[in-house]
Amino acid sequence: MTEALVQINNVVKHYTRGKQTVEVLHGITLAIPKGDFVALMGPSGSGKTTLLNLIGGLDQPTGGEILVDGKRIDRMGNAELARWRAGNVGFVFQFYNLLPVLTAERNVELPLLLTKMGGAERLKRANVALEIVGLKDRARHKPKELSGGQEQRVAIARALVSDPTLLVCDEPTGDLDRKTADEILTLLQRLNREYGKTIVMVTHDPKAAEYARRTVHLDKGTLVDEPAH
Amino acid sequence: MFKQIFAITLMNLRNLPERLGASLVIVVGLAGVVGVLTALLAMSEGLGATLKATGRPDRAMVLRGGSDAELNSGLDRDSATLVTEQVGVRKGADGKPLASRELVLIAELPLKRTGTSGNVTLRGVEAGAFELRPDLKIIAGRKFAPGLNEMLVGKGVTEQFEDAELGQVVRIRGADWTIVGVFESGNAHDSELWIDTDTAQSAFGRQGYSMVLVGLESAESLPAFQAALKAETRLNVDAESQSAYYARQTGGSTAMIKVLTTVVSFVMALGAIFAALNTMYASVSTRTTEIATLRAIGFGPLPVVVSVLIESMLLATIGGLLGALGAWLIFNNYAVTTLGGSFTQLVFNFKVTPRLLQAGMTLALAIGFIGGLLPAVRAARMPVTVALREA
Ligand SMILES: Nc1ncnc2c1ncn2[C@@H]1O[C@H](COP(=O)(O)OP(=O)(O)OP(=O)(O)O)[C@@H](O)[C@H]1O
Ligand SMILES: [Mg+2]
Question: In terms of Cα–Cα distance, which of B145, B276, B224, B385 is closest to A54?
Fold first, then answer.
């Protein structure tokens, strides 16, 4: 196995609500090699989103280590983490989270605003990303004028545009019908195989998991070998 | 950083049409606050300017010792004459002391506005009065002739009172007076009736005067003049510069307007702040997911804060400008009289000066800032993961 892109060591995550502290992840250890496509499955409330957010640097673990590409992201402050995310991770959400006032290409351009790139170059790259997801002809459309599947493609283009090594997707097909879901999953698979993107994808759908190289099961905050029945 | 702020701000503003109703709350609220503030300040400014324009530092007003206003002062003929002979008094063109012994009375005339009678200052003046008040210009007719029941009226009086026009005869305190001229002086005298002092004394059965206005050799001669008056044992009078006298009159009337202005503006501003807070909280919360998405992508919290502030301050500015413009259009040079039956009417114009507009806009921006800051900070401090879950 090649060197792990994501190395999670004994990660614990607590949430505090008022005086109550709940331990959501109980010592997770997981290695994700570069070029992997991991499906993360498990019952509702098992901590999938929590773990994915930790991998994507959106949140900090209560204990343990998270290394991505050799960097300890669990030690970074908020500002540093934000910069790290901008350069290293692409996010795909269940509800696409496109900005409704912006056209597809402007949505895709957003992450590039955090770079030193000039305006013309940014739009060129945005259109290349849209071409990869097969939506070059919809560059000037607003999200409202697109179907759910098309919106998710735009969101994937946005995740790709700054060329991150890691894509984290939280139920990317959760809101789509079977056929559209298969198209999105095929696209993700292509990004993994042709473009070498390392992908971590949370899903409830066993069919979706089949597109991944492997599946990891989470149950009540612990990694398990087989899904709980 | 600027690119981030610019991008997010532009996005917020593009989003504005969808939040038009809520955004209008800020605009309208601020227009109201700034409009009212500007109007009130313009009133105080106009009144102050009118009174201030009436006084000059090289003129002294001599009143009976202890009197604080012309109307409750009185000097007998000998004292009044003695006052004009003291050191520091300038000589007029005729080589005599430049002075005007004046008798100030209250007359009643019917107000155009209500038909009821209002008080007017009736001033008996001597020839020197015109030289002492060079701002005063006869704009219609001529001066009164000594010994005749003729009267000059201020421009403000003709505007505010019934029958106070050139050629009319008005009855005051049992005597008929023909209006032979109208004058304009751009100050408090515009609200007065002027007649000859001697004629006034005989018509109204008065022996003495209310005060003496003297021209000083210079503003610096005042202390010497005051000392001379004090040293003269036959006199019991107080002298102060004409500008000090009118500044004192201004103080009383504008202080009340200032209190009113402060209270009204404060209450309205408080209301506007809450309206702005409410609007901006709503505006931010409808964009919780958007903001969280941007944060997830790597946008910093500062651009989020700044963009929300820019939005609220922009709306506040629009409102403030509308309010200021409205106040300016409606109230600039709007002529009013002071109210109150027991005082004499004083005509003055509202003055909407650039300084006032600036004060109004400063208040608008401050309200926009406060109204935007808390929602902005809350939006920026909300953990990204929590905000994303709210979708
Ligand atoms: N900010 C928070 N504060 C308190 N508890 C939280 C918070 N976020 C998540 N939790 C709790 O942590 C647990 C795991 O949540 P998580 O969203 O990771 O589950 P999940 O596996 O993604 O579930 P689903 O399949 O429904 O999306 C849940 O019990 C949830 O209520
Ligand atoms: Mg989840």
Answer: B385
Question: Across the A/B interface, how many CB contacts are shorter than 8 Å?
Answer: 63
Q: Do A99 and B293 touch (CB under 8 A)?
A: yes
Ligand in nearest proximity to the CA of A44:
1
Whether residue A114 and residue B289 make contact (CB cut-off 8 A), yes or no, is: no
Domain ranges of chain B: 2-52+250-390, 66-235
Residues 6 or more apart in contact with residue B142 via CB below 8 angstroms: B180, B181
Q: Which of A91, A95, A101 sits opposite B297 (nearest CB)?
A: A91
pTM: 0.71
Interface test with A, best of B384, B386, B389 (most A CBs within 10 A): B384
Tokens of A91: 């996010």
How many angstroms is it from B8 CA to the middle of ligand 1? Answer: 29
Distance (Å) from CA A49 to ligand 1 centroid = 7
Nearest neighbour of B391 by CB, restricted to A59, A91, A95: A95
Residues B138-143: contacts with CB under 8 Å, at least 24 apart: B138/B181, B138/B182, B138/B183, B139/B182, B139/B183, B139/B184, B140/B166, B140/B181, B140/B182, B141/B166, B141/B167, B141/B179, B141/B180, B141/B181, B141/B182, B142/B180, B142/B181, B143/B180, B143/B181
Q: Digits of tens for pLDDT over chain B (391 positions)?
A: 777 888 788 877 877 887 788 888 889 988 988 888 888 888 888 888 887 788 888 999 999 999 888 888 999 999 999 999 999 999 988 889 999 999 999 998 888 888 888 889 999 999 999 999 999 999 999 999 998 999 999 998 998 888 889 999 999 888 899 999 999 988 889 989 999 999 999 999 999 999 999 999 999 999 999 999 999 999 999 999 998 888 887 677 677 777 888 888 888 888 888 888 888 888 888 888 888 999 999 998 888 888 888 988 999 999 999 999 998 898 887 777 665 434 566 778 888 888 888 988 998 999 999 988 998 888 888 889 988 887 6
Angle at B346 between CA B345 and CA B348, to 5 degrees: 140
- Verify whether the Cβ–Cβ distance B11 to A101 is below 8 Å: yes
